């Protein structure tokens, strides 16, 4: 192996960014040969990484989440471009069930490029979705898209700065938690010296679906969640409410704005609440998920039949002049809080074409009146511009940074 390669392999940042950048350029000078994929890649288990939109937004929702928000440790655009190139190369491989760079068992005298815990696991429908927070643009002196603004304060918010914000984010979703965690861990490793994790969240039990024919999942309050979500196949509604169009900068077209909220549930109080009150809070029945006035889950919603301060009535597009978002949240439990209460809730993820016409008006209405507020509290928050899809040979954010 030439000296240069060895030296790069032996320095963390050199290994990380060098390996990915080489792979993007097709040069591969860090490793001697591109290894054959060694992990099983069963049919249907991998979601294409390249395309007009980033996977992980409208694609079917997987069972598990590992979400990470990062802070840049540099204001050098060059360093960030090198990291994004390396991230993209690694993401394209991991989503295809391939090991990162030279693999988990490459050169004997250097730390392996891949950490190895996903060896032998299928792709598990892994998707990796990247977004840029408002501070990313400020730090790198790049023009911020008009629609990317810090979220306003909402009544009742108790946001922890240590679980909020971030210059970049990565949403990793997979059907196997080990695959999602492996993906984020390897991106963190590659980004060493350029970006570091500010906060992260593991999630299980998706609380929304983009596949209406499948059984609707339930949240930790026991209610079906995602019934009225936008279907991933509904191109018209996605174009109208989720994908950025001509109004956005070119690099955002086909992309979307992500709002992430860590919402704690006061589970113990909820569990002492009567079924009637629980159902009144949502305006839907618990077992079937039927809207008040109907008998089946997908019966039409008649707002007048629901309590005026019920969650679904307040959040419904007909109450808000048509406002619609794509929900993609997950349940979380992070142990207990020292007072014996479960630190559990909903990690709410919503994609939209414009937060001012999506999350913000809905949350204003909910924060003002929702009877659910007695049982929940928003404790973490982030907003990110997720660029359009990546084309083969390109990298995340290329249109913005090049
Ligand atoms: C600002 C947006 C929303 C937040 C925050 C939010 C929190 C939240 N939601 C549930 C449980 C349910 N939500 C349901 C429907 C629903 N929720 C929102 C928006 C937010 N929810 C919308 C836009 C809708 C759809 C309204 C409609 O068009 O009918 C439901 C009902 C089933 C469904 O359609 O998904 C449940 C249940 C919790 C527990 C929660 C915070 C912890
Ligand atoms: Fe909701």
UniProtKB/TrEMBL annotation:
The keyword Oxidoreductase applies. Residues 216-390 form the Dyp-type peroxidase C-terminal domain. It is found in: Cell envelope. Residues 35-55 are annotated as: Disordered. PROSITE patterns: DYP_PEROXIDASE (PS51404), TAT (PS51318). Its EC number is 1.11.1.-. Involved in the recovery of exogenous heme iron. Extracts iron from heme while preserving the protoporphyrin ring intact. The keyword Plastid does not apply. It catalyses: heme b + 2 H(+) = protoporphyrin IX + Fe(2+). Binds 1 heme b (iron(II)-protoporphyrin IX) group non-covalently per subunit. It holds the Pfam family Dyp_perox_C. It comes from Streptosporangium brasiliense. Keywords: Heme, Iron, Lyase, Metal-binding, Oxidoreductase, Peroxidase, Signal. Its cofactor is heme b. Belongs to the DyP-type peroxidase family. GO terms for molecular function: peroxidase activity. This is Deferrochelatase. It is an enzyme of class 1 (oxidoreductase). Residues 54-204 form the Dyp-type peroxidase N-terminal domain.
